[in-house]
Design brief:
alpha+beta, homotetramer, globular, ten-stranded mixed sheet, eight-stranded mixed sheet
Chain lengths: 342, 342, 342, 342
Amino acid sequence: MNALPPPPDIVRSAYAELIVTSLADARHFWVDLLGFVVTAQDASALYLRGYDELTHHNLVLRTGPAAALGTLAFRVRSGADLSRAEDFYRALDCPVERVPAGVTRGIGEQVRAQDPLGFPVSFFAAAEHAERLQQRYDLRRGAEVARLDHFNICVPDVPAAYQLYSSLGFGLSETIEDGQTMYAAWMYRKQTVHDVAFTGGAGPRLHHLGFFAHEPHSVLRMCDILGATGEYEYIERGPGRHGVSNAFYVYLRDPDGHRMEVYTSDYYTGDPDHPVLRWSVLDPRRRDFWGHAVVPSWYSEASPVLSLSGSVVPATEIAQAAESAARVGADGFTAPPRAPSG
Amino acid sequence: MNALPPPPDIVRSAYAELIVTSLADARHFWVDLLGFVVTAQDASALYLRGYDELTHHNLVLRTGPAAALGTLAFRVRSGADLSRAEDFYRALDCPVERVPAGVTRGIGEQVRAQDPLGFPVSFFAAAEHAERLQQRYDLRRGAEVARLDHFNICVPDVPAAYQLYSSLGFGLSETIEDGQTMYAAWMYRKQTVHDVAFTGGAGPRLHHLGFFAHEPHSVLRMCDILGATGEYEYIERGPGRHGVSNAFYVYLRDPDGHRMEVYTSDYYTGDPDHPVLRWSVLDPRRRDFWGHAVVPSWYSEASPVLSLSGSVVPATEIAQAAESAARVGADGFTAPPRAPSG
Amino acid sequence: MNALPPPPDIVRSAYAELIVTSLADARHFWVDLLGFVVTAQDASALYLRGYDELTHHNLVLRTGPAAALGTLAFRVRSGADLSRAEDFYRALDCPVERVPAGVTRGIGEQVRAQDPLGFPVSFFAAAEHAERLQQRYDLRRGAEVARLDHFNICVPDVPAAYQLYSSLGFGLSETIEDGQTMYAAWMYRKQTVHDVAFTGGAGPRLHHLGFFAHEPHSVLRMCDILGATGEYEYIERGPGRHGVSNAFYVYLRDPDGHRMEVYTSDYYTGDPDHPVLRWSVLDPRRRDFWGHAVVPSWYSEASPVLSLSGSVVPATEIAQAAESAARVGADGFTAPPRAPSG
Amino acid sequence: MNALPPPPDIVRSAYAELIVTSLADARHFWVDLLGFVVTAQDASALYLRGYDELTHHNLVLRTGPAAALGTLAFRVRSGADLSRAEDFYRALDCPVERVPAGVTRGIGEQVRAQDPLGFPVSFFAAAEHAERLQQRYDLRRGAEVARLDHFNICVPDVPAAYQLYSSLGFGLSETIEDGQTMYAAWMYRKQTVHDVAFTGGAGPRLHHLGFFAHEPHSVLRMCDILGATGEYEYIERGPGRHGVSNAFYVYLRDPDGHRMEVYTSDYYTGDPDHPVLRWSVLDPRRRDFWGHAVVPSWYSEASPVLSLSGSVVPATEIAQAAESAARVGADGFTAPPRAPSG
């Protein structure tokens, strides 16, 4: 990819659009239970944000015939970066389009592409601001989500995804690997563990959207609320501590099966020589620091993604060794010592 | 049992004695990792307490040839209650003996019996006091256990256990049942959810010892420590929120397989008309309020118990319907509404 | 007092009635901000409880011409204890009356007295139950108060109050004293640090009502809510850690100036030989374990109390040395060592 | 300052050097009590870091004849930025020097300057890495400090400091002001509220070093430890919630009087259009969101700073209106509404 033009200066993962089959059901899950703030609602869509978010939204829930990912949107530094994004994806022979300001409510002009991995991605430099609710403790409910933290996507070829996002200027914070295979990787633009992560599996599919909360208390409270209302089946995995990222987490599935993570803690990655933390696929703590097994659905299920024209992008089966099938005795990495090394 | 003499006035579950096969390994688990306070140690035993405990110990770890429960000890109100305990168990044709003060270090005279359920139980009215460490935050480590909270025992016939402890003056706080079967019950003398609980299963066996910690933070921290040292295999189940008791918990297994629970929260039960909370065996929230399945070992594995002469008491297979086999469609109880009723 | 008849068997401090000048303002403070559960409301009163409370209420807010304490109500074990209460206070030459069931909504027959300290006290054995909301995490708001914990009263003669409550069968958990003077004392019936505490000062006056919350998080959240709404002037003192009781706390003042405490943690006191913890008045940690000075209003301000006929009981000035005036150099106690002794 | 050369690309505030009069006393405070990790120690200095820190240290404690600030060190992106730093400060007619790698243990070549405000500042691009202890929960003690967060400095002229750091490329997150005066300002390079903040007062002096912890629990625990050991006099102010930054905090003073803050939470500031939050000096919540008064010493006391030659830089009295003297009725800003606006 050495002939690629300079990439856009991406600031962070900023919002996602999910296609949901019932706006009422989605509102119940995301607003009534999880406590997201409603910036706006119209007949076909809900625009939601966390309590710390100052831009218009972190999540668009749009009605459609079947559950899918509509787009993964990244904020870029300036308008010039929109042109860079356009050039970058065109150079990769990807479908690219300009979307005028306001087509996505509250968001300025966007460049959209179906990237080489098959995902619908958007880039914008300007957005309307919303009311600052950061200190409105009187309004907080549910998981008290602060902001979007990251996108986690299923890709059949993790090294290919790593290469693409490296060329987009993302840093690598952590991996799961052995001597032969990179099973998963976490990459960042903002100074956290990640803006995007790759989970090996049939793809393109959306594995989950990660939302940041300030305290582990919010993770536990969210589960207690779902127990109280009898809607505990929305809880798929956790709460637990991740080995990777060190974050405290819980995974929920919305009424359409979209997976979301309430994610707290993690760490600063802004130093230019920030070292990569490489986890052995044989270390049971990589996915759950307490050694709990990952539920099978977490590895196998994910949301389909839409093309720019709105059709579902067919998923390609995994092209590499599957993490869920990794076994002690695999080549390359030895059994982990008591603590991972940086 | 209407001919029974008056029972002793039991104050609370006070300490347990566990037989362990390696005092060094047990010390590593209970002291180095869990952070219990060592009141005393001699060649064959460790005497441990929580940070809030003002009496000599909550736990004796004594070396022996095989892992077993040595005794479950209850505090009684006065010396006269020792005689009542003696009479009570003799009237039930149980083996009973007086144990002079100091035979168990730090503990006054005791009455010991092998109760009708087969368990070794002890009663004492006097004990040495230990240094008050409640506010020594500088010393706190591990799970920051405050005190013993309860004994949970496996019995093949839950109603028989319920009857025995009712005749001993215990109140009933919660049950798991359906129209035909009482699968489990929680009973108290002190003003918490329980001092003793019964889990249906082969018995007599010790299911677990429950220790109280003040904050959910301690439960999470304990797991994080076990992840950090690579000893996460000691974590058997949780962390989670119980439906029964509303407590936040984690279950660990010590190097000999003895199960212990770090248990926080629960509620006040001291009112004379405190109502029983009855959970349907069909409500997945009864054992984990977040609906997570219970790991099989938690239902099947438990510690053998010793007779007064120190031999293992053979366990009798469960005589009633097993909770782990209860299925939707069982008679009597309908599917639970969204919240349990008092 | 050796000729006193046997006292009633008091279970615990159960509810208080406060006279407020505006039910709307009181409802805003106690319900909208603090999150108390409304069991019932009528034209002149609000009946509130915590989320764990199973009886009808912990607090009655009743309109009246001026802010005052209406009554401090204790639950007794049985109907026979109502007669014992009547006899006990008559033997002390106190005004006593029987109040029929339902006069206080949700509460059975009561005995009311103006006790020798001048306080209006009530005793009841029966009460209606309210819906169990303990696990309705979806409903929790504000300070997430679980139940009433204690009454703290201002008395001009602390030893006299100590004697009265000793004769009522209360245990002594902690004191503030020096060689000559008992400045404050904490006494219990239920198995916590206290049901009633005495603060030396002009009296009879109500110092505060203490309400139990399960987690320090609730104390911090309550303050953050009051910051968010701009009503931070309701915060009088704290948050902080008490030396006495070891509880984490904050003191608020309601719109009528009634003081309430959100109180978490404390410890078990149910053992018959539970030792008294005696704090030197010279130890700055006794009132705030972090050594912070107590704000002057906390020592000087308190609510007047009503007689059985509804008139304000005149307060008598303090008859002993005042804690707020205690100075290093006072007789009897030396400067504290690093940790209090049990 | 339009003739200034381009500034160095500063990554973040990285470490500070404090001169202490007793290394043993300093070690007791910073290591034994606060729980800092010791990377290295030699006869004259201790090199400490937080648990998340991957570079050699966040704090150097160096023995000297009197308490003072030795330097405030910033990490820059590359070696070329060292030259830019040199040029930048020379253009401002400041004393500047190159310090070879290793002069400060673990740190590569540095540029040092006495900046126009009188502060000793250092810049480095390379540092040795230390062992990754982020997930060593078994080692955590004290306040469980993760990393250095910010420097807060006393300056007699806040707008002058704001101009200097603007020219260095820092963003402005929050201010305290009225229509006429900027009383305080918070500025950042990394994506948090600040790397440096200015408190109006006699200067140059160091107001405090802010260290990040992950949870409010750590702030409370630190205070409880200081209560437990009887060293509560190290606590100067708090715990509390800041209005500015929204962080939960406590301020401690070390044995030499150096002030440090345990600081948790705050928020993401990485978006290019991140809006400034301007607090009125009349809003009591600006410094403590719960409206508590700031203790006088917090406004008046601070550490002297050393010149490059090691002599104390004389402090200049405040040249503008003092925040501590601001009163309701000041021009320009009206009384705050219930919540600050962004």
